[in-house]
Amino acid sequence: MIGSVKGLESAHMAKRRILVVDDDKRAVDLVRLYLERDGYEVRAAYDGPTALELARSAGGDLIVLDIMLPGINGLDICRLLRQESDIPIIMLTAKSFEEDRLLGFDLGADDYLTKPFSPRELLARIRSVLRRVEAREDKAEEPVTLGSLNVDFRRHEVRINGRPVALTPAEFRILGVLVREPGRVFSRLQLLDRAFGLDFDGLERNADIHIMHLRRKLGFGRDGPIKAIPGTGYKLEEA
């Protein structure tokens, strides 16, 4: 079982451990060079089954995971790991289709980088994701209850009138943004940026898709507490 990212040690106290998964050994070697120069400890895997075994047995602080892998693809690995752990995952792929990005985020990926990419950009993304995860864990937020809705951030659980509701990691993040500041109106871009901390250029309309799924799963219609603000975005009513 993979260890939680909670309680990550300071970089001055221990090396962060990164698992890099890609079937292109030259690409892995280049990424390893940059990461080790920056003080990270790097493990590598070149196929899906090995990556899954290493992730489960050796743990680590973050996984850089290619989608196109022999044996088990990266999306399936991401889905399996998200059932066991909240370890940060940055997805890599040669594909640039929007659907791949959406699927990766829905499965729980923390960031997404399209090949070819600069190793320096990957390094910056790794730093950013680790900082964001640390800040989220340090908050140790208490559960939030608004009417019949209860959101437990520590357990990643959502309940309506005591009934558990199964949300994807992406949907949970979107809902988390809304319930933390009830009554506040978020633009689509603000909602996505708060949820994922990423550049969602060209993907703003995907906020509408997440909201539609949230309303359906929570049993809220258009007249429910998740309100669309025409020409602006969304808010969760305080009542």
| Sheet of most strands | 5 strands, parallel
The outline comes out as elongated
Mean pLDDT score: 84
Cα-based radius of gyration, to the nearest Å: 18 Å
Number of strands: 12
Pick out the low-confidence regions. 1-13
Q: How would you classify the helix and strand content by structural class?
A: alpha/beta
How is this structure best described in words?
- By secondary structure, the protein is of the alpha/beta class.
- The chain is about 40% helix and about 20% strand.
- The chain contains eight helices and twelve strands.
- It has helices at about 25-35, 50-60, 75-80, 100-105, 120-140, 170-180, 190-195, 205-220; strands at about 15-20, 40-45, 60-65, 90-95, 110-115, 145, 150, 155-160, 165, 185, 225-230, 235.
- The strands form three sheets. A five-stranded parallel sheet has the order 2-1-3-4-5, with helices on both faces.
- The longest helix is centred in the middle third of the chain and has 21 residues, at about 120-140.
- It is elongated and about 55 Å long.
- The chain starts with 16 loop residues before the first strand and ends with a strand.
Q: What's this entry about, in short?
A:
With 239 residues, the protein is of the alpha/beta class. The chain has helices at 25-37, 48-58, 74-82, 98-106, 119-139, 169-180, 188-196, 206-218, and strands at residues 17-21, 41-45, 62-66, 89-93, 111-114, 144-146, 149-152, 157-160, 163-165, 186-187, 226-229, 233-236. It is 41% helix and 20% strand.
